[in-house]
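User: My instructor asked us to take a sequence, write out its structure as tokens, and then describe one feature of it. I'm not sure where to start. Here is the sequence I was given:
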Amino acid sequence: MLLALLLSPPASGEDDSGARGKKGEVTAGELVWPPPPLEPRIRYLNSIATSDDVRGKKGFWRKLWEFFRGPDIRAMIKPMSVAVDGKGRIYVADPAARMVHLFHPARNRYRSIDTIDETSLQFPISVALDDRDHLYVADGHRKRIFSLTSRGRPGRIYGKAGQLQRPAGIAVDSRRRLLYVADPPAHDIKIFSIDDGRLKGSIGRRGTAPGEFNFPTWLAVDAGSRIYVTDSLNGRVQILGADGKPVASFGKLGVTTGSFSSPKGVALDSDGHLYVADAGFDNIQIFDQSGRLLLYFGGSGQAPGLFWMPGGVFIDEKDRIYVADSYNRRVQIFQYLKVKREP
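Assistant: Let's start with the prediction itself. The structure tokens for your sequence are:
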């Protein structure tokens, strides 16, 4: 069994400036997991911490502006959730800053979203996107889910008075036009209609049995409408069918490999592997659909590839992995390297 080898420390590397090789190839100075001579499956790409990380070289007018007004730099304070749309725009929920950061690397642009439809955000804890690139923002203090169109115009607001206690992670099922909201104090998952905002029902109650939760926090939905729930204080991930009924679960609270200490964000790559961030272990654990641990990467620290209480995880259509590295005040970006298959 190769599990012990796959769980070895990452290949050495002093920084993230090494040349990028082709998929599956390792060049000097790169961070990859597992290390050579094993074929890599995860490659570190870069990180984003401030507006200057995407703005590029300062032009004359910006230098002049900053000469008189001071540096115009926006930095993350405690990023908790991240999502990326079809145009490569990176949205980061930062509740400590009371805003959502919007980074657009392709256009060297940055802006912040602190107000939606004339309502100031108080605690934007998580973000999600649908197949139309509409943005959804869960505000734990406002007890609402706010939305914006792909053009940045205010959309529908989800959660009338009394419907949500303190929303946390959210996920969208675009095919079925549903918005799922983890509501930790209520120990359930609320289901809203995307199109009319109606609360259609809820899944679960407090408990340890299948389909029951103890402070669920983060969510993901796959192409088949299965729902993945980080059942935090039960120390497990539960998988639910499109009908909301339990399909499987894995994990337990513990200190051994494959267990969880403080499970947070959850996401899936194009091969259906499940990535779970653990704020206690400061790593990302990767499982198959049966709950078998395949690999983990990360560890405690501030260097590239290390984490300090990671939160949300997002994987885009190109299998780039975005991790909200909360206490390091950054988002780290990795690449999943698919297995080479024989023709």
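For the description part of your assignment, you could build on this observation: Confidence is low (pLDDT under 50) at residues 1-21. Try explaining in your own words what that tells you about the chain.
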